[in-house]
Amino acid sequence: MALLPGFSGSHAPAWEPIRLSVSTSCLHSHAGAWERVISEAFTLTLFSVYQKLLDQYGPQQWWPADTPFEVMVGAILTQNTAWTNVEKSIAQLKAKRKLTPQAIDRLPHEQLAELIRASGYFNVKATRLKNFCHWYLVQGGFDALNELETASLRHELLSVKGVGPETADDMMLYAFNRPIFVVDAYTRRIFSRLGLVDDGIKYEPLRETFELEFMGKRKRKRLSFDERVAHYNEYHALIVVHGKDVCRTRPRCEECCLRRQCAYLK
Fold first, then answer.
1. CATH architecture of residue range(s) 42-61+183-265
2. Is the peptide bond before 135 cis (omega within 30 degrees of 0)?
3. What is the rounded (10 degree) CA torsion for 241, 247, 252, 254?
4. Global pTM?
5. Helices and strands: H and E segment counts in the chain
């Protein structure tokens, strides 16, 4: 397995997204070695879904952002809307030089709401962004928060009004490079259709199911902190693209790379 960039301890000294440092060509040319490593850490079903999605779509290089703060803003703005709408709102904030916690904290509610109008629910999201930015500054910003242990950091993020589990975990994984698997509606839809989880499973049990598989059990290889971050990042991004483009509310089953194993078609 290629070495992963990022950090060597419990958290990164400087922000850099941790991603799989392998290309699709490398995956195919070293398929035997890759499978020997991964198959020890994933159940066959989870590995096969992950591998098929990676083969189909390639590495996603997600989350598209220049700074960890931009990731956090995007995580709030993407609630109940498409990412293309979030991009428009972030572009507006950048154009007006308001994409900093200080600027958003000082900005009048009405002006902020207008800048993020494209993301929908703009009044609610303006309130949530201002709440978050004020809290973020009081806590000491990214460097101070990044000193917290993973469980404590997640607990603190969840204490902010308007930050639910999915939003917090987006921030944990993509801004703070922590090994927290992000669950969303696409995850539940895809894996319930595959017959791997119950359609009504709650957020935390579903997240824990994925994390336990990646952490390794019994004699299977236990992935490192860095490796789990990279795989959670890639897997979640692949789930999103597959759920958005193929496994929709009205699925395009004929285009699905998982159709032969899918219980939805049986």
1. Orthogonal Bundle (1.10)
2. no
3. 90
4. 0.83
5. 14, 0
In this structure, which CATH number among 1.10.340.30, 1.20.1250.20, 3.50.50.60, 1.10.3470.10 belongs to the domain 68-175? Answer: 1.10.340.30
Phi, psi of 241 (to 5 degrees): -65, -35
Question: Contact, 142 vs 69, CB < 8 A?
Answer: yes
Angstrom distance (rounded) from CA 106 to CA 259: 51
Structure tokens at 257: 């790379």
Q: Which residue has the tokens 């290889």?
A: 221
Model pLDDT for residues 15-60, shown as the tens digit of each residue: 577 766 544 433 333 334 444 343 333 344 677 798 899 999 999 9
Alpha-carbon torsion (95, 177, 72, 211), positive or negative: positive
Whole-number Cα distances in Å, 245 to 73, 186, 241: 24, 11, 6
Residues in the chain: 266
Q: Which tokens hold the place of 40?
A: 């020890």
CA distances in angstroms from 243 to 48, 179, 237, listed in the order given: 17, 22, 10
